Amino acid sequence: MSGFKRTLSVITIFALSVSLTGCGAGLNAATRQIAQVTDGVEANVINEENNIRVVNLLVVATEDQYAVLVGTIVNAKDAPDTLLGVAINGSVATLTGTTTLLRNAPVIFEGDSANAKAVLPGFTVAPGIRVPVVLFFARAGEVTLDALVRGATDIYTNVTSGGPVSAPAAAVTETE
Q: Does 137 lie in the same domain as 69?
């Protein structure tokens, strides 16, 4: 009888541990169903020739009616790619700064580490609306995202349509 009780105890403990830890939910667990946890959207172009990741992309609508792109693009392949252009809500934005995507060297739109800027004048879409943003790459082709428009408030207060970002200068070494 003690063998039966021991087996029953093991089965009961196993069943309780599976049900209490949530492992029994499988692929339908609520935590697996979260699609987006930030305002920015993401996209990947991954195939034999490309490994481009677009992270936390959104559009900030400034008070002077400009759309300013916010986000990061990273190329994980050895072969460089080039961001040829950006279209926001069907209109081509002015792109300045770093456009060459070297391996693991992010192109960052806005913020303290920004090395690129994409700005579109005459933007009248209200915050809270989603607009199409199309990124045009030399190798990876065209990537279309449905980006959220945010106002220039809160953490986006310092996002402005002002001055273009210039590409970083090439490293110069002095010889003595």
A: yes
Tell how strand 51-61 and strand 141-151 pair up. Answer: parallel
Residue 51 shares a structural domain with residue 24: no
Answer yes or no: is 121 within a domain: yes
Contact yes or no for 97/105 (Cβ under 8 A): no
For 147-170, write each residue's pLDDT tens digit: 999 999 999 999 998 865 655 544
Spatial neighbors of 117 by CB under 8 A, at least 6 apart, are 68, 69, 95, 96, 97, 109, 110, 164, 165
- Dihedral through CA 79, CA 141, CA 97, CA 77, nearest 10? -20
| Residues of the domain holding 13 | 2-32
0.70 exceeded by the pTM? Answer: yes
